[in-house]
Design a protein that fits this description.
The protein has 211 residues and is of the alpha/beta class. The chain has a single domain, classed as Maf protein (Alpha-Beta Complex). Helices cover 34% and strands 22% of the residues. It has a seven-stranded mixed β-sheet. α1 links the parallel β1 and β2. The longest helix is centred in the last third of the chain and has 26 residues. The radius of gyration is 18 Å and the shape is globular. The structure holds inosine 5'-triphosphate (ITT). Inosine 5'-triphosphate binds next to β3.
Length: 211
């Protein structure tokens, strides 16, 4: 129990990557899909950090588990920062989101197609206290058509220049090495020994959620 965390996400791609990156650590990693009555999560704020905190705090309070939330997205300077915190909401499916992006960038020349992924991770305890915040960012460029089948979200159109491959053409291991989520989770894992003792303390000393 003390070493159980719940990932405050319904995004299967994110959950898979987080599970891979935490596989070697002494943690039982649940997701909202493992819970019978998962909380409804909202992302009402204009910043990744605020939305991540909202999701972590709501989930930890509602479930009684320490919760790790990931708010992430794609920032395209040529689109004034869009889709940004609205990355999951510009359309209903990954395919439609990619079409939205490529259409929006139809007239953007090659030298202005730079973009980056951001990931903010927040861990909250069952009282709603934030135990830590970790960040990652990876820079790349947006292709003119999808390339590759792996990953999720905008991966088929996000080219990582050092490898001359999109995230959807890489192995999952390689994406985790360089991605925004991989960076944030590596920083989280470095803090994990301290956090585990903090989690134990909080679970033993705090009242159950809702009291
Ligand atoms: P949860 O809130 O349930 O975690 P979500 O998909 O709504 O899921 P976000 O609001 O953080 O999560 O939106 C993140 C979106 O950004 C995600 O849906 C993708 O479209 C995109 N995204 C984030 N990380 C990505 C990655 O590693 N590869 C491709 N696209 C990514």
């Amino acid at each position: 129990m003390a070493n159980t965390i719940v990932v405050a996400s319904k995004n299967a791609g994110k959950i898979r990557e987080i599970r891979q990156l935490l596989a070697d650590f002494p943690l039982q990693v649940l997701s909202l899909d493992d819970l019978s009555d998962p909380p409804e999560l909202t992302e009402p704020y204009p910043s990744f950090a605020q939305n991540a905190a909202e999701k972590a705090v709501t989930t930890a309070r509602a479930t009684g588990y320490v919760a790790l939330a990931d708010d992430s997205g794609l920032v395209v300077p040529a689109l004034d920062g869009a889709p940004g915190t609205r990355s999951s909401r510009v359309a209903a499916t990954d395919g439609e989101r990619i079409k939205w992006l490529l259409d929006a960038m139809d007239q953007v020349p090659a030298d202005k197609r730079n973009a980056y992924f951001v990931c903010i991770m927040v861990l909250a305890d069952i009282t709603g206290q934030i135990l830590g915040t970790w960040r990652g960012r990876v820079d790349g460029t947006i292709t003119t058509q999808p390339q590759g089948e792996a990953g999720f979200g905008y991966d088929p159109v996000f080219l990582y220049p050092p490898d001359s491959q999109t995230f959807a053409e890489m192995t999952p291991e390689r994406k985790n090495q360089v991605s925004h989520r991989g960076q944030a989770l590596k920083a989280f894992v470095q803090d994990l020994p301290d956090i585990l003792s903090s989690i134990t303390t909080n679970i033993n000393s705090a009242p159950p959620a809702g009291e």
